[in-house]
Amino acid sequence: MSNAPLPDTGLLGASEKLGTLAAQHAAEADASRTLSPEIVDGLREAGFARHFVSARWGGREGTFGELTQGVLNVSRGCASTGWCASLLAASSRYAAHLPEAGHEELWGSSPDTCLVTGLVPMGKAEQVDGGHRVTGRWDYISGVDFADWALLCASIPGDPAPELRFFTLPRGSFEVLRTWDCAGMRATGSHTVIVDDVFVPAHLSFARADMEAGRSAWSTQPTHNIPFPAFGGLTFIAPAVGAAEGALKAAAAVLRGKRVLEATQVDLVRASAKIDTSRFLVEQNARVIDERTFAPALLARNQRNAAFAAEQVTEALSGLLSATGTRGMSESGALQRFWRDINAAASHVALRYDITRAAANYANALFEES
Question: DSSP letter string over 158-203?
């Protein structure tokens, strides 16, 4: 595959600056369980929300390779900020499946509209004249504290099976319950969204099947026409890998100037290799998507890469804690926060071999090639 340099839309430089700022705010964000207004403004200004938005609305029409590097840059400073950056971009990409009138409503006045997504169909919808009425409760909606819109999946009764659709609702039409109490990724604000019989017009809805298959009837932009299995895991593993790189730096800082035994050096070096391996796999996934090589074997490999990288970064953090000992677990230090954040991120369902069928899909691809 090609190793051509990434196009520069400005995200890379902006994300490096945001990563530095996020690192300065990371301890406060972890303690308060929320991103500061300065960091939220930084996410918008860096261009994560507009990264996949069409140029006709002022968006960047960026690549997955550039986005991945941007997320890595931010996550090295603060995993929660990097997580929100990744999901902001992904949510705008999902919403691009809306009809043209939906594009205009979301981005007609600004390409930096912040959307959040509930991928799991936790709600119910009823078709009515001009659209649908939606009711439900969606858990774990990251970034909802500062979202302008929520994109939520719900089911519509049907025969022989219900239809799954996404519905886009503006802030003010849903309630937020502050339920997020996870030990890691505390500042993602992944709270619960409640919708009570809200009307959603037809132009703010689309079929989940179109997103899964990677077909958009309203946009020819390449990044708007990508099968979900190609990129689903990348959204969630990239922040974890960036955070692991930040953790490696934090561990080295703990050990700097100390007498380090050979066994400690081995722990540190093994952890660094696992982190590098994870980053290479994540970058490989991004190249597959940008080059639009959607052969079943490569889609299965992307799923495998994401799940395996999640394993590797959690193992790497265990090694870093072994290397740094009690000093690494100091609450005043960054390493223990990265450890909590990475373990929380790696538990996401999109990074599970069993739920994503990553193991079965890639094993079948190998059998077919043999």
Answer: -SSSPEEEEEEEETTSSEEE-----SSSGGG--EEEEEEEEEEEGG
